[in-house]
Records
---
Amino acid sequence: MARAPLLQLTDISLTFGGDPVFEDLSLTVQQGDRVALVGRNGSGKSTLMKVMAGLVEPDRGEVVLNAGSHAGYMEQDPDLSGFATLGDFARAGLPEGEGYRVEMAAEGLKFDPDRQVATASGGERRRAALARLLAQAPELMLLDEPTNHLDVEAIGWLEDHLSQTRAAYVIISHDRAFLRRLTRATLWIDRGEVRRRERGFEGFEDWREEIWAAEDDARHKLDRKIKAEARWAVEGISARRKRNQGRVRALQAMRAERASQIRRQGAAAMALDTGPQSGKRVIEAQGISKAFGDRVILKPFDLRVQRGDRVAFVGPNGAGKTTLIRMLTGEIAPDQGEVKLGTNLEIAVFDQARAALDPDQSLWDSLTGDPDMRVSGRADQVMVRGQPKHVVGYLKDFLFDEAQARAPVRSLSGGEKARLLLARLMAKPSNLLVLDEPTNDLDVETLDLLQDILGEYDGTVLLVSHDRDFIDRVADTTVAMEGDGRAVTYAGGWTDYRAQRGEDQPAAPGEPRKLAQPSPLPVKPRLAKNGLSFTEKHRLEELPAIIQRLEAEIAKLSEFLSDPELYRTAPAKFRKATDALGERQAMLDKAEEEWLLLEEKASGN
């Protein structure tokens, strides 16, 4: 006998003073569901989650939670008024003797329950709200961007906790790796329609593109049919005095259908303008260190950053990533050592604290009030990469409508604030980008676009992020803050860094866990070789470790595929592992060929 849904939404309609957010929406959440809720910024994800939580009343329709069940909601901006400490807030409503649940969550999420609410940061408040929800252990957890302000260790703890819970949950998140690991179904909001797919976030983009391609094909067929019928209607006037009124009505109906179709929102028109070319050497740090009192932030550390490098800085919150970047860019001085900056640098900074945005300013004033963007004598123009542009037109490039131009910054969602900050950043020419947690609150499509833009950017990028997928897509070097002031440089992105440390990689639900790869053999110091550029020398030195990692992955995949029952019992896993084996073999062949060519070039052959 089928169990009743945990949550049932039936014929929901909701309007906020304009176009409907949802109309005639119905969906269910089953017991034990693990659901990704995805969609563009502003599509209504958080609103739908609040409807599920009973915090927003729909204009029409019914929301039914299974009798005896509870839904818990983690909001992005929790109200802690009336509580002295974060722990007081997190423990509120718990039965006596179960406060230990908060202590356990606080340890995993890395916040101090004794911290006074008045002095707590926004990130600490959000972590307290998440701990409160986890401690209450409701049958349905509604999580709105739970990984924001969490470092990688805390994200890993949360992943493990959610993978073991028996509760159902719905997650809004920009963190692809997090969604891939945890979800088994996907709800996609697109122009007020919600589609459900009984698979996790893995493969979501392919599914979305298939739907859009089918939609475009149907629209083109309808356009062609309208054009043909319209030609018949016009020609029929002269050919016949009495036209087929049924065909005329059908044409009118087709035109009405076409007019009612809502076009997809385009991607933000983001672009970066590389300023004058910097010198080949951008940053040379030798023996730099830093301490605040007895707390050592950085032990002596060397780093060379060349023009065009993409360097990611990873590590726990408070490890000193931002401090290190501020030393590397000359904003603060190291206690020891020296930082030499290259010539002709023009630096642009994306600040995770959004300090560049005044919450009481309008979006219009936020742009026109920036001295670097102001056009002399024009209150409605901004300078965008050397050219004047109307402020509303530039805001539209970043998916803001005209009505938002005079709205205060405080009215924006987290993702909209991030887009506004990117609009300010991208208006100015630069050749060194400093991006401190740029991915927080951005939707998947905007992240894809930002990644593409960074790939085409001719300048240099310093990136602080806890988004493992984004680091893999962008970085070619990773600096890991490993505790006790130690900073270690690794070639490649997040996955390469973890492999070189021999650490396990998280697996997607139902997939075999990736085994730890052995650490690469140490590369002996070598003299500069004739005929190689600096980049080629660096590549030649890192290739043996890459080859060794690929060989280890091929061995593990071959072992996994050696099970004669695998194809019969798990055909999907068999196909995926087979594809991965072929991919790794091709990568190994390419790496070995590249190593041979560089070795021959270095030897003068």
---
Amino acid sequence: MSGEYDASSIQVLEGLEAVRRRPAMYIGSIDENGLHHLVWEIVDNSIDEAMAGVCDKINVILGQTEHGFESVTIQDNGRGIPTEPHPHYNMSSLELVTTRLHSGGKFDHSSYKVSGGLHGVGIAVVNAISSWMQVKVRRNGGPILMQEYVRGETISHGLIEVEEVWEDKSGTHTTFIPDYEIFETVHFNIITIKNRLRELAFLNKGLTITLIDNRKQKEDLKLDEEKENVWIFHYNGGIQAYIEQLATNRTHDDIPYFDETIEKTQVEVALAYDKSERDLIYTFTNNINTRHGGTHLSGFKSGLTRAINAYVQKNEHLVRNIHLKKGLKEKRSIFSGNDVREGLIAVVSVKVMNPQFEGQTKSKLGNSEVKGIVERCCYENILKFLEEHPESAKEIIEKCELAATIRMKFRQIREAVKKTQAKGTGKLIDCTETDPSKRELFLVEGNSAGGTAIEGRFSEFQAILPLRGKVINVEKARLEKAMRNKEILEIIRAIGAGYKENFQIEKVRYHKVILLMDADIDGHHIVCLLLTFFFRYMPELIDEGYLYIAQPPLYRIKKGNNEKYVISDQERDKLVEEWGKNVEISRFKGLGEMNPIQLQDTVMDPSQRTLLQVTRINIIEAERIFNTLMGDEVGPRREFIETHALEVENLDI
């Protein structure tokens, strides 16, 4: 029976206690993503200073205390947080913004014309869920003032003047240690931080961002090509330099770029075409990555399509296809949005005074007026570029014409997919659960293993789709060829959300799509082919964290009544050394050799299994790897293999 509910039951969470009680409401989660969100909150404050034109240098330093706790220091040479007493509160302005939610200088536009942080919760939230935080401020060449906090509470009486030598006459230095009582992990990933800082440097041309890793443990670096602990990001070319790194296989030399301000909205765009089919469009609002697009993306797409169609109307001789020529004579737009976006790589960055985001994560821009501004800006500037660069324009039009020709020739592709979806579930063995967030789909190698998985699954929430053989490599095959592949069609049908530009994340039928392949070289190859498919056809599935790779065991180690499964030779050797003599070792050649109970215990039982979640942390590097290893060009692949051959630790002969 519940207790009494009266006036005494009503609680008021004072100060920052609300943040400590419900941190996910403010930073999204308390896992690794939420942990890194603390860094972004402070860095974004420094970036706002850079956008205001008063900061050109930001340092991010990862440190470690003598007790092993990791810390982050963010330094900038901006104006410095105001430190004088606030006229309406009995405390300094610095203490006000660090200890009170919804306080700051970004609610009007006198201090910041545009800003990424608009809710006044950034540094206060970081303070609330840090075990310790320190802020040092210098303004206008004056003294360096400092204040310290423990779990959101001020521990220093007023502001303390510290004797330090700063190169800059003004700036803010913030150091914090995340609270281990709140977060699932307090380890910062150097690659995650490095990629975001590089992105911010691209988006703010001329800004220098330095990352320094002073921690004792740098295990993340083994995943990185660079071994040093200092990285400097500075790009005078801004997003134009970003495009040069993304589009390494361009069909044309010149890169369309423009930076224009219309009605107090700044629109900066760079784009290029490469030899692939896929399109990559990255959108940002006030430096925030709006990965779900929004009105600026819609405006860009419309402006691009209009500009290219307007250009070919004036230059009919560039079009060879007789059906398209007929459309030109009838004064119709001959290229669809999909035609002009095939092979497109673009960065669209807008700076808006009052951005309206859909959702707390700021992943989609909602300002209706931005669409028209971006469309007008893109139409005029892209059309101007095409007229002034006829050779590049010719290459771009040829690319669009090829896409349009194939679209007309293979219009039945979409109908084929619809027909397969209408035929029922195909080879899919579905589960009984109806809530997508609780459903799991296993893509299993081979009918034999599929049968074992069907017997060993938890039928209420786990579905099985057996795949026969290797799926087609979509990095090499064009869309029409990929859509003739039965396995690709089965996967699209099972997930139920479409593909490519028609993909709708809200229609995904399973929030865990798990690749379950043999733990051998062929199984790894199939995983690579499937990852290529999802990367090119359903990238949103990866971004939402819905894609996983199962870790089936390679060996069963048994001694007496003790039995253990391991997934690598290293684990096998270590366990054999621990257990000593008379150890029985069984190697599984494939999933089909395991009985249903073994498969259930090692791969399918959520309480015992290990899953690897697939993420897209470094877009530039991911693009390079997929192009190199799965693309048409043999030379770069051979060079990659020769360079990294000696680094291979596990190779099935």
---
Amino acid sequence: MKFDRNTILGLVILGALFFGYFYYTNQEQMALNKARAREQFVKDSIARVNGPKKDTLAIRRDSLTSDSATRAINAGTFQQSAGGTEQLVTLENDLIRVTFTTKGGQPKMVELKKYKGPDSSLVKLAGSNFNKLSYTINTAANRSAQTGDLFFSKIDSVTNADKSKTISFTLQSSDSASAGTAITHSYTIKPDDYMIGLDVKMNGADKLLTQGIMNLNWQYAAAQQESDVSFEKQNTQIGYVEDGEFDYHTIGRRSSKTFDKNVKWVGVRQRFFFSLIVAKDNFASGKMDWTVPADSMKTIVESTTNLRVQFPVASSATQSFSLYYGPSDYHLLRKYDLQLDKLVNLGQGMYAFVRPLNRFVILPIFDFMKSIGGSYGIAILLLTLFIRLLISPLTYSSYLSGAKMKALRPEIATLKAKFGEDQQAMSMEQMKLFREAGVNPLGGCIPALLQIPIFFALYSFFNSQIGLRGASFLWANDLSAFDEVIKWGDVPVLSFLLGHHLSMFTITAVITSFLISLYSMSMTPDQNNPMLKYMPYIFPVFMLFIFNRLPSALTWYYTVSNLITLALQFVIQNYIIDHDKILVQIAENRKKPKAKSKWAERMEQMQEQQKRMKDAQQKNKK
């Protein structure tokens, strides 16, 4: 990379995109903070209204007794199921362990056997009391109850011929007049699969549901799974497929979504984990609301989804659903053919243009490099080598352009001495000099501009690559997060600029960038503009504040890329490019007749017009 005027232009554009991205993420963080403040305000208001009063214990006891009596009355023909002792039953395969509860006949907790949380225990999804899968049923004339409040006392389990396992929970009417009315929830887990099948079978469906409509309530609380809760919230989204089209919302940007058309699935994707509910025959409509709790709650988002399901209006009816609790893995989600993979952030929003690059180039190459490299750190190194090899023709062209610019230094210096402060005349003559010598002044900035989409593609890729989670390399314990080699407490200015740590991979990236700047400036014509002169030294410092919060995988990639750049610069400039031959080539180019391009003609016309206007202004002043 050569830091001539046009290379600086490329770097300025890159810097502008950096600022744009981090402004965008900062806006998301502000939205998250507002959502948390709003949620806290509501909770505080409720707490004040429901604060301690006289005889609180007695009131609470009376309230519980009243609630129990109300539930028994509302349970109608299922009165015997209104109370009971909760039983827990476990079903598992090699990937997940699901704990079911007889209260509501629903999952109570899902553990992922191949992933560990911040406390080194297995990752737990849907493990809080907030989580619920329930719907309203008619229990008697003018009475209704939520299945989540009733106890499914009958439990059956079976191992199927395909080695899948099914467990069933049945809610049976205790009224003789309604004999045979029952609801059965059957859950099936296949070997090596995160998707859980759910069949809801109703005997007496025409009585249990009004006009065959089930109003399904799915509540889900996404527990914190990563060390940096703020960054995890920035990378958490609500996703769905409505009327066959995929869409998503970042949790801090809005707090609800109404579905007016058929919905195939809705779900919550954290940075690396995904939970969702799928309807085999689609949900007819619905609404999803979510709140973002305070960071201290260690919960990323709490969502409540109400979905309308149309059952056949018959005495016996069944609807099938699926529940997914597992990793947000692109390859895995793509196998389900439900557009689930689109929620994996390989490029979204203003950076959606890098998604094809990630999907068709970076991802397959990285998978291959991982297969031959063994560790993820080595795979990143090999990926970097491949990318640099891919753009090497442009890199060589850039260095060749820089060598030609260096060969013209004496003549550029002569022009500066001749025209002094007259920058317009200097620019016009310099353009003529470049054209006569056959030098492309834009040749140095092309590789810098080309690396912009590559950088943002890798930023999205490394943020979403679950394989990096917990993968150690050198001093980094987790390549999906920054490496905290140096830590400090809450130091006001320092914490605002850098956070509470200093990443070693960030330091290596900044140092190698600074060395590139030093070497490049030694090969570049002198700059009169102080901004252009010092920009190459400012840019590495600018990187320090940005890169310190990024995943180690990305800063490791940048370090390797910089080391390759330094090696290429030295080898190409000293052993490949023949500077004497360049001088001969420039001399030959000057002998050839020059045909001006339309762009060059327009540029010269514009410069000449500006020069005439400037001369006229100076004459008027005299």
---
Amino acid sequence: MSTIRLTMAQAIVRFLTAQKTDIDGEILPLFAGVWAIFGHGNVAGMGEALHAVRDTLPTYRAHNEQGMAHAAVAFAKASRRRRMMACTTSIGPGATNMVTAAAVAHVNRLPVLLLPGDVFANRRPDPVLQQIEDFSDGTATANDCFRPVSRYFDRIVRPEQIIPALQRAMAVLTDPAECGPVTLALCQDTQAEAYDYPESFFAEKVWKQRRIRADRTELTEAAALIRDAKKPFIVAGGGVLYSGAEKTLAAFATKHGIPAGETQAGKSSLAHDEPANLGAIGVTGTGAANTLAEEADVVIAVGTRLQDFTTGSWALFKNPNRRIVALNVQAFDAAKHNAKSLVTDAKVGLEELGEALGSWKAPEAWTKKAQDEKSRWFDQAARFTDPTNAELPSDAQVIGAVQRNAAPGDVVVCAAGGLPGELHKHWQASQAGGYHMEYGYSCMGYEIAGGLGVKMADPNRDVTVMVGDGSYLMMNSELATSVMLGLKLTVVLLDNRGYGCINRLQRATGGESFNNLLQHTRHVTLPDIDFAAHAASLGAEAIKVKGIGELENALKDARKAERSTVIVIDTDPLESTDAGGHWWDVAVPEVSVRPQVNEARKTYETALAAQRVGD
């Protein structure tokens, strides 16, 4: 057996460069690069190894470990899990900064390889700088925080252990059902240790997308259930996009006359003007999609994990006889809520289900009702996004301005706060992937870093990041990275002077405005932040605009700009779209000295009665 002597870190990077992916016949590197912030624990081992392959496996420097991992996660999502990135950090805070991003990847089923440094395996210098000591467990380190948010976790204490660890990592990262973050904690002394690795370990391997096909019995039973439906309804989830099944879904829905609603992750799987597409579903859903979902007797859930925002906390599907047919690559998701499981890839699953249904079509009256409700919703929604001369426009009015200045291939990126709800209802995506929302973990601070990852995945598409002042303050440093890398973003920063979304939720549950908007916080001086000046200091073009008219002009200028542009606009923290939507289960205190809370509790108890428990 031929061998080559390498350090463990050198073996990792050589292995990563040998992994390829086949995307529609084009062979590309599976790992598009490595994000790295060096420190003790990775600068000597991984740093030296990455330098040697910098021309074939690019290393990117970020300004925050969580931010760079968000960028890697967004890259994987925008690449539909066909390509990915790795992230390496020092031990201690550098490592734990990535834990939140690992949770984002875990919830959204996205591949990212995390390579945090770790303590000395030989324990000679213990305790080392930044080491966490467990008084009862000598094997515990800070990196154990990654265990619950990793699909696969390993700690490498001997150089030869990296062989099975990387093989297992790849099995997880490329598996459509098990896909998620992998953490390999790299003891810093082990990174530098040499070993005679078999050359076969570094042979080029081309990974192809695995298509899981449905069990024939499950397929037959699912088709029979749908044929009996009088009011079938499709819920399109993120799995549609991961599978590349958007055209298949459109053809399936059209052929069988079945209306569809989109989850946050699934939005843009159908073009907004596709006849079957009724838009967003659930808590932040359109009036059209939710009206049909309430009556549906068979819900065809495609590539969705059916979280509470999609199901209205399991109170949306009101038909007492409704059944669920769940198409999903992951059996755990397909079996939720007593669904008729169809464990399958979305694309081939819809193709085979369509064949099994033959010429069957939903009743014409049901399909017509869907079209009538869609037309009614578009008429209703337009009044929320139309231009205005208001001094403080609403989020929806800002969205309307961005939409009017968008091109069909543009991508809008967002994550948390009130914007996801307004975008879910109002954004009209023309092309697949044109709507990139991190709402599985609803992670504030994802927005700008995520936009950077999206731009890296497809540099030819213009990327617009919409972010509130609260999220911007949490994490904005990768704006500087976008400028540094020449990856242009347009950032629309809506300043409502606090956490407007949570303030509205607080008031809706009977609470008094408290500790959310800046004016309701304990303070000596209210902050008056010049966000445009801050963004300019990071290297971006920046402007503060007054009103929708100036915003539209700034958006036109931003499209022509050569580097990232931040457009700041003051908005109304209280205004939101009161059409569409659905109840969401947010527990209200059972007793309170405040009458408003007690009234909210009564309303809450009434709403609880609509939840479907146990099915």
